[in-house]
Write a structure and sequence with these properties.
alpha+beta, seven-stranded mixed sheet, nine-stranded antiparallel sheet
Length: about 450
């Protein structure tokens, strides 16, 4: 297929895409929030709300087995205690939002939305509950057009926060925006190479007291992490950190994900799973589970591969190979190391590393395996930047510098001491042909990210 038909097909698909509100799919340039809307809504009725519930949920348009949702509630504010009815309404709304994401808005609970509710995202705007529902159904493949265009649509909901209630001296009440963080994936099956598009970001819900449920969503604005984060803005105030971007940026971001990927090098092994938290501008944030693995020091990378490969025969190791190289690796105790994951913690098993395979415990450090040690990592959040060139020193260190600049730009904090070394990952089989996949990893400090 020539480039022109491929591009034309992508453009035709893009022209059909419309906003999906809370699922943050494809919409118009978000309206900038005026100062009065940056954190709250002012109302003339007494209100109360216990808020800042967080949840982790995931959904698929075709998956009926929904995981459990974890919820955390903050301490009630004084206004919450004096306005228990509205506080309870906001808490119920958060549970409803969680369930809507979990079920991919099937059903959508209309009674929480104003009839003329507005939806805006980086590509399109629309008004009204029916318009919103129709477009969610299209993305989920619940309409004829959706069945032709898409498959595999699903959302991971990372958190639901906000909605705090405060009472002014004059008796008026302010309700803070409710904010969700999410990651959306959808496959464009209408294109022959079936590309997957991934979007992550936030949805800002404008709330007003009243309505049949006691609180009503009157507006929703979606922002993408890839184009809407303002440089060096305060990450503790999402409405200030995210801002309007030109529609052309959104179109390019989307079409860039639909382009054919070309011939890729063969993967060395099945990949260590992770939860994608953010697809940012030039990087990703991932939550990796705890894992047990094996590690060796090395002088040449091919020797490291050979040693770990011989040791792990029959153990079904996972990709990637993770290398750690100190900036002053000539110092004693700062050898270059290579780690292979062997076993990871399953959902519900906690953040720690699982027990390593018994055969690895018996062999590690013994006899011919004296240079092999066991390794364990707890659950962690890692910033990742991909590169396709060979993983030579200058390439890796340049990618690490670029990633650190992006983290500083977006208000993310690397773990203490991480500037003393580089960590990079290799996924491809040795000597494989095709486009290679290498990554630099920087673990983030606890509290140095919004997740």
């Amino acid at each position: 297929m020539t480039k022109l038909p491929a591009a034309s097909a992508s453009l035709a698909l893009a022209a059909l895409l419309v906003p999906l509100g809370g699922v943050a799919a494809f919409g118009s340039p978000p309206r900038p929030l005026p100062p009065s809307r940056l954190s709250s809504r002012k109302c003339s009725v007494a209100t109360n709300g216990r808020v800042a519930a967080t949840s982790l949920a995931s959904s698929s348009a075709t998956d009926a087995d929904a995981p459990a949702v974890a919820t955390d509630a903050s301490s009630p504010s004084p206004s919450s205690l004096s306005n228990p009815a509205l506080s309870d309404s906001i808490a119920r709304l958060k549970r409803v939002l969680t369930q809507e994401y979990l079920s991919f808005f099937d059903p959508m609970v209309d009674s929480y939305y104003a009839p003329d509710v507005s939806f805006d995202d980086p590509l399109t705007s629309l008004t009204g509950v029916d318009s919103y529902r129709n477009n969610v159904d299209m993305l989920a493949g619940r309409t004829l057009m959706g069945k032709l265009l898409f498959e595999g649509a699903g959302i991971n909901l990372h958190s639901v926060t906000g909605g705090e209630i405060s009472e002014e001296v004059d008796g008026s009440v302010e309700i803070a925006d409710a904010i969700t963080r999410w990651t959306l994936r959808v496959t464009a099956k209408v294109l022959p190479w079936r590309p997957e598009a991934v979007f992550s970001g936030i949805s800002v819900y404008e709330l007003s007291p009243g309505g049949p449920e006691g609180v009503t969503i009157v507006g929703q604005t979606d922002y993408w992490d890839s184009i809407n984060i303002r440089e060096r803005a305060d990450p503790s105030v999402p409405q200030a950190q995210y801002g309007k971007a030109p529609k052309g940026d959104a179109v390019r971001d989307f079409l860039g994900q639909l382009a054919p990927d070309g011939f890729r090098a063969a993967a060395a092994a099945p990949e260590l799973p992770y939860l994608l938290l953010r697809r940012g501008d030039g990087y990703e944030l991932r939550r990796y589970p705890g894992y047990a693995g094996i590690r060796t020091s090395y002088e040449r990378r091919d020797y490291g591969f050979g040693s770990l490969g011989a040791f792990a025969k029959g153990m079904e190791p996972l990709a990637p190979s993770v290398m750690k190289v100190y900036n002053d690796d000539y110092d004693e105790g700062k050898d270059k190391t290579m780690t292979w994951p062997l076993r990871f913690a399953m959902p519900g098993e906690g953040p720690g590393a699982p027990e390593p395979p018994r055969v690895a415990v018996e062999k590690a450090g013994q006899g011919q395996w004296k240079s092999i040690s066991l390794s364990s990592e707890s659950e962690r959040i890692v910033a990742v930047r991909t590169f396709e060139d060979a993983a030579m020193g200058p390439v890796v260190r340049n990618a690490d510098r670029e990633l650190r600049g992006m983290l500083s730009r977006d208000g993310l904090v690397p773990s203490k001491g991480s500037e003393e070394y580089v960590v990079f990952a290799q996924y491809d089989a040795v000597h494989s042909m095709g486009k290679r996949r290498g990554e630099v990893w920087i673990e983030l400090e606890e509290g140095g990210h919004p997740f």
